[in-house]
Design a protein that fits this description.
With about 350 residues, this protein is mainly alpha-helical. It is about 75% helix and about 5% strand. The radius of gyration is 21 Å and the shape is globular.
Length: about 350
């Protein structure tokens, strides 16, 4: 096969994936900020809505219909999916919960970009990988950047409303989420290497098997449904495209339910792109692409919602993304045996 044909095939695979990640994830941030600005502690409802919708979309492809519907044969053992489900559920819940503890969207984005640090530490201690000094230096840049952005944001928030304790809790939740996300990325990488690139199966089972876990949060979800239902009503006919479909019919719904719907749909697109890319690349490549996406999301958040960005946060942000770029330009780490050490 010629080089041109190979390049065309690669582009045809990568362009839709990049489109899903950047389009879906950036739209998701916009809808998420609309929700948490009015109902800060609605993270459990958002997460449940995302998981339930993605499960429903995947049912036709993974369920055999009959007198008794049953799941189709899997390509990957259920035990593998259970480990990933637990990690993925923890990441989603922790990240959404953090927004209810005085964490701004820009800090949320920058902090989650520190996954490179956790990825390296987990690779070193769990996967027995060894990294060149320049890669370690790049990770130090990311670490310093995250610390600068975090301290700058917390000090600014404390000056505004004095809720320092809430910010500390939020940062703790984000920290746990970053560690779980790094473990998830490495485990997914190993799973796809061993069993093949079954990303659609992963997307479905990661959400289906997590649904029972939301029973622990049913009271919170009930309160959050009530809070969204009390938001200002808007007529669907005033929305783009929807008005043409409804004609003269006037239907009003609480506007935060529309934001939740946009968030759920965009999360489906984003998660589809991320899972597909996980099957096509290493966890490092995925980290680099996601950090670039987070940079775009940060710009969108600042421009559309006028979120304050202090000089310290901006400097920290630049260090995070510069460190990520430098890390991606170096040769990958390789596993070593205990004897080689």
């Amino acid at each position: 096969m010629s080089t041109t044909a190979t390049a065309a095939i690669l582009l045809s695979e990568w362009i839709p994936v990049i489109g899903l990640i950047f389009g879906g994830c950036c739209s998701n941030v916009f809808a998420l900020e609309s929700l948490v600005r009015e109902v800060p502690k609605c993270g459990n409802l958002i997460t449940f809505g995302q998981f339930a919708f993605i499960t429903l979309v995947g049912l036709p492809s993974h369920v055999q219909l009959g007198w008794v519907p049953r799941l189709k044969p899997r390509q990957v053992p259920i035990q593998r999916w259970m480990v990933m489900v637990t990690l993925y559920f923890c990441v989603s819940v922790l990240n959404n919960l953090a927004l209810g503890y005085n964490i701004s969207i820009p800090l949320h984005i920058v902090f989650r970009s520190s996954g490179l640090i956790a990825n390296m530490l987990c690779g070193y201690f769990v996967m027995n990988k060894r990294y060149p000094r320049m890669q370690a230096l790049a990770v130090v840049m990311v670490t310093i950047g995250v610390v600068m952005a975090t301290l700058s944001s917390v000090n600014g928030t404390h000056e505004q409303n004095g809720l320092m304790s809430d910010s500390v809790i939020g940062i703790g939740l984000l920290s746990l989420g970053v560690v779980f996300a790094a473990l998830l990325g490495l485990y997914q990488e190993q799973t796809y290497l061993k069993y093949g690139k079954h990303w659609r199966e992963g997307l479905f089972y990661n959400h289906l098997l997590a649904l029972p876990m939301f029973l622990f949060f049913y009271k919170d979800i009930g309160h959050q449904i009530h809070a969204l239902s009390r938001s200002r009503s808007v007529e669907l006919g005033e929305l783009p495209l929807v008005g043409a479909l409804l004609g003269s019919n006037k239907i009003s719904v609480p506007h935060l339910w529309i934001s939740l719907l946009v968030n759920v749909l965009s999360q489906w697109a984003c998660a589809s792109g991320v899972h597909q890319m996980t099957s096509m690349s290493t966890s490092l490549t995925l980290n680099v692409v996601l950090n670039l996406r987070k940079l775009v999301s940060l710009v969108v958040s600042v421009l559309l919602f006028q979120n304050p960005v202090t000089p310290g946060m901006m400097a920290g942000c630049l260090l995070v993304f510069a460190g990520t770029f430098a890390y991606s330009k170096l040769r990958p780490a390789v596993p070593v045996s205990k004897k080689q050490e």
